[in-house]
Structure formats: structure tokens, C-alpha cells
Amino acid sequence: MISVVLPCYNPLDGWCQTFLDHMTELNGKLPDYSIQYIISNDGSTRLDLQKIDMLMASPNVIFLNSEINEGKGSAIRKGTNRADGDIIIYTDIDFPFGTAPIVEMINVFKENPQTWFVYGNRNVEYFKKLPFKRQLVSKALHRLNRIFLSKHITDTQAGIKGLRREILPEVLETKTNTFVFEIELIRKLVRKKIGIRSVEVSANPAIVFSDFSMKVLFREAVSLARIIMMSSIWNDIS
């Protein structure tokens, strides 16, 4: 079984039909697999309950509801903790990269038994479409990743990742709730020499990119500083 975890926070109008379209498309591309879809709601305030009931009428759709907005990291931990699949993929509720990278990740796992984690690596065209502030943040994170993680890993923030169930405990042990929680996760995997690969991803043409507010940037910076500090303490202990 494959589990697809979809963190969700106040999605745009039409998200339900977008989800159904991509679910149908992915099921068609992977007919040999049973696919479980887990929507992990992170305190959304404008979800139509009738649409949720309609989605849950499907036996392979699970809706997890958190009334408090805790952050993307928290939503992914809750969703992956509920997953039954041997392979777990998580991506955003609007499928910003489409379904092709999910199929590619499944093939990577199938063809490479020593690969335990796969991350999306956004291409150049993707970054050109980002608002200027987000471009600057992304470039800064790329530099940090090369120093803090590995010279081979630059893009940690693409909203699509895949893992084998065996390393699910590494995900559940992360502490960061914000977007940068994946830096904490990948840092753990690199330290344990767990097999990591990437697949190139590009943005769905219909995706509208939002910009970061200063409040969000500050929150992410605090989370990142905490990750670096805790990693330094762990290095001193070990």
C-alpha cells in the first residue's frame, strides 16, 4: 500500500475538486497499488463540512482534523502517524507538482532497495516564478543546506517527500512544527547515513505562489536557529 499524506490549512476555493481530480489521476497511473489518502487538517477555518463528508465516503480517504493551527510539521507528523502504507508520500493539498513526481518516487523506491528517503528538488524554472522575497529566502537556505546538511543536498523545502515505513520513527521524532521541520528531519537522516535520493520537480502552471509575511519569516528563523542550536548540542554530547 501507498499512503499519500496531504497537510491542509485554509486551501483555496475549488480544493476539493482539485483533490478528487489528482486522486483519480494517480489511481490511474498506479493501478497495481492500493493508495490511501490522508488529509491532515491543521486548524483550517473555512472548510465545507459537506465536502469533507463527501470525500470520506470513499473508503481510501481519511480526514484528520486538528482545530488548532500548529504548523506544517505538526500536520505531516499527524498524517504520517496515521498512514498504513509501506511507502509514504507527503505533498500539499493542491498537488503543486502534479502526480508525476509521486509515480517517479515510487519507481525510485522500487528500483533502489537502499534508498529510504526521496525529496523533491525544484528546478530552475520553479524558482523564477517565486516572489522576490521567497527567491532570496530559498537562496539563503540552499547555502545553509550545503553547510549544515550535505554538499549534495540543497533543496529541502519542496513540498513533496517520500519515505519507506521503516524510517517513519525519524519523522515522528522531529520537534519542529513550522515549514523548516524538514531541515531537522534530513539532518537526522544524514547523520544516520540513511540512503537519500532526489527527483526533479516543476510547478503546476495553475499554482499561485504566495509571499511570506515578516511574521512568518521571523517564526521560521526562530525554528531554524533552534534546529541548529540543538544539533550543535547533540554534536557536543556525541
Automatic annotation (TrEMBL):
The keyword Transferase applies. Keywords: Transferase. Residues 3-171 form the Glycosyltransferase 2-like domain. InterPro entries: Glyco_trans_2-like (IPR001173), Nucleotide-diphossugar_trans (IPR029044). One of its GO terms (molecular function) is transferase activity. It holds the Pfam family Glycos_transf_2. GO terms for biological process: protein N-linked glycosylation. It comes from the Bacteria. This is Glycosyltransferase family 2 protein. It comes from Dyadobacter psychrotolerans.
